[in-house]
Design a protein that fits this description.
By secondary structure, the chain is α+β, with helices and mostly antiparallel strands. The protein has one domain: Lrp/AsnC effector binding domain/regulation of amino acid metabolism (RAM) domain (Alpha-Beta Plaits, 2-Layer Sandwich). Helix content is 43%, strand content 33%. Strand 2 and strand 3 form a beta hairpin.
Length: 94
């Protein structure tokens, strides 16, 4: 499994959904987990993104599939980044 950081921005439709049904966030996380991707942590953030989600996924393809599935709903836009721990990064440089 590999670590990914997902930065998400709600669309106008997504903000409407969140306002009327804030629990939808947890429902989407369950849908992500059903895709074989574990949600390690999630934070609401200020700035250009609305949420930062830390994911543990089997591969890039699983993350791409998740991104297309969630993005196709029209409620969120995602940027997903693969991540290495600092220890893994240092090891890769040696």
């Amino acid at each position: 499994m590999a670590i990914y950081i997902a930065l998400s921005t709600l669309t106008d439709e997504g903000r409407k959904t969140l306002k009327t049904r804030p629990e939808r966030i947890k429902e989407v996380n369950k849908e992500i987990e059903a895709m074989g991707i574990r949600v390690l942590g999630q934070y609401a953030v200020l700035g250009p993104y609305d949420f930062m989600t830390l994911l543990d996924a089997p591969n890039n393809e699983a993350v791409l599939k998740m991104s297309v599935e969630l993005g196709s709903r029209g409620t969120v836009q995602l940027i997903t980044l693969p991540a290495l721990s600092v220890d893994e990064f240092i090891k890769s440089l040696k």
